């Protein structure tokens, strides 16, 4: 699908980009790094205003469009395309790359002060979007996305598209998506007929293959109280549960307790010691070094297992869809990062033109073909966009995207606190404690938390 050309507003443009102090790419998105070429450092000052004129503030015609983003493979990939947009719109683009902590701190400081020196914002729809919307920091994009037939908002997959809505308004556009992948040892699964289709089969094979006394584990995964919640969410959904039911806590339901107990047993009986202290950074290397038969984590980290500097299982690793539980296979399919517009921006029209361009059908297909999974169904339906992924991974990603649910954590303002509460029965299951009483206590705590959290939603 070809969108109408972007209106050129100004003269020749110059790209600029500044980088934060963080690493070039987070480990969880370890894809091919790209050279930025000769980029001019961005200034940190605000857009020049026509301050001497009475009436509403307007941006100087020569002010750059300012993008604030995390230092991520998506940001690195689009850097080389920015001159294309500058030529189209006739405005210089300045993109500043920061670590996740730096990005959050910058938003808190600048947007609390109604700063105009951010136009396009890279945000996490599942982590901070509700808070930012409540604070009035994100512009309403509803009319822009729904009123543009060529943009085709319905082409975005349903799960990530739904996560773009808060308080009945579209406030972000998904740009990078993520699902869980089942990573497994093909050489060890030959006698079992390949990858397991169900969670129960995976548990049985894990129990049979585990040789924990000799340092080999059936399954490795996140076990840290808060950090494990995102990956456990797919187990919860596949057991028929959810974080909330009719607005109330759902973590004390029979389905949730069964998911807690299953996940706890899987790690307690077939996993490595010290797993309750393991997040992505500790669990992933165990599988990469050939010390586990199964591992479930984000599909975005797949290249770690194909990197000879990290992995010893390059030839043995296989990729499969999330196994089915009692309620089927219901993995998460989330927008890990989205784009929004600063409500205080003086360049909202140009900011929208940028989002419209970078998240349009053609650009999403180009980025996905380069190994960055997007949110448009048209891209997923085009086999050429999946050619950079291993064939079995591409197929598992496609299946998980079709079956996926658009969240991997409670849909609340205080996400960190919610994950800490929800993760408590997880730890109980892994350490061998009785799950039902711990889940009942956590359920009561989460119910009280939801009441307080909902009171804070004053949009």
TrEMBL record:
Coiled-coil region(s): none
Q: Where is the composition biased (Basic residues)?
A: 1-10
Matching entries from InterPro entries are given as: Bact_solute-bd_prot1, SBP, TAT_signal
Using the UniProt annotation, give all residue ranges assigned to the region (Disordered): 1-26
Name this protein carries in UniProt: Putative ABC transporter-binding protein
């Amino acid at each position: 699908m070809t969108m109408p050309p972007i209106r050129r507003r100004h003269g020749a443009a110059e790209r600029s980009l500044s980088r934060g102090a963080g690493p070039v790419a987070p480990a969880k998105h370890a894809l091919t790094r790209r050279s930025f070429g000769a980029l001019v450092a961005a200034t940190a000052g605000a857009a020049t205003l026509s301050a001497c004129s009475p009436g509403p503030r307007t941006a100087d015609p020569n002010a750059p469009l300012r993008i604030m983003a995390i230092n991520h493979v998506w940001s690195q990939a689009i850097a080389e395309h920015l001159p294309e947009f500058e030529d189209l719109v006739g405005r210089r683009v300045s993109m500043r790359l920061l670590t996740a902590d730096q990005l959050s701190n910058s938003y808190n400081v600048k947007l609390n002060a109604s700063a105009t020196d951010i136009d396009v914002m890279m945000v996490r729809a599942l982590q901070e979007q509700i808070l930012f919307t409540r604070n009035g920091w994100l512009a309403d994009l509803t009319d822009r996305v729904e009123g543009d037939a060529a943009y085709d908002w319905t082409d975005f997959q349903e799960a990530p598209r739904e996560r773009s809505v808060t308080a009945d308004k579209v406030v972000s556009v998904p740009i990078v998506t993520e699902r869980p992948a089942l990573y497994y040892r093909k050489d060890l699964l030959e006698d079992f007929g390949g990858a397991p289709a169900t969670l129960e089969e995976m548990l049985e094979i894990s129990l049979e293959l585990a040789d924990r006394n000799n340092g080999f584990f059936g399954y490795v995964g996140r076990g840290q109280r808060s950090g494990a919640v995102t990956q456990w969410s797919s187990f919860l959904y596949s057991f028929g549960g959810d974080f909330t039911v009719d607005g109330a806590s759902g973590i004390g339901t029979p389905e949730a307790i069964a998911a807690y107990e299953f996940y706890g047993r899987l790690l307690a009986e077939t996993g490595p010691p010290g797993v309750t202290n393991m997040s992505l950074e500790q669990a992933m290397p165990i599988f990469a070094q050939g010390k586990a038969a199964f591992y479930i984590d984000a599909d975005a980290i797949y290249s770690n297992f194909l990197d000879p500097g990290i992995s010893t299982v390059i030839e043995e690793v296989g990729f499969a869809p999330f196994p089915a539980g009692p309620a089927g296979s219901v993995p998460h399919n989330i927008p890990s990062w989205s784009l929004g517009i600063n409500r205080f921006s003086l360049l909202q029209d140009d900011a929208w033109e940028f989002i419209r361009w970078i998240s349009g059908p053609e650009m999403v297909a180009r980025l996905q073909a380069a190994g960055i999974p997007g949110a448009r169904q048209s891209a997923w339906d085009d086999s050429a966009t999946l050619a950079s992924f291993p064939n079995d991974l591409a197929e598992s990603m496609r299946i998980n995207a079709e079956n996926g649910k658009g969240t991997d954590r409670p849909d609340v303002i205080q996400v960190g606190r919610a994950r800490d509460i929800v993760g408590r029965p997880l730890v109980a299951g892994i350490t061998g404690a009785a799950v039902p009483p711990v889940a009942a206590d956590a359920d009561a705590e989460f119910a009280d938390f939801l009441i307080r959290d909902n009171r804070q939603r004053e949009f």
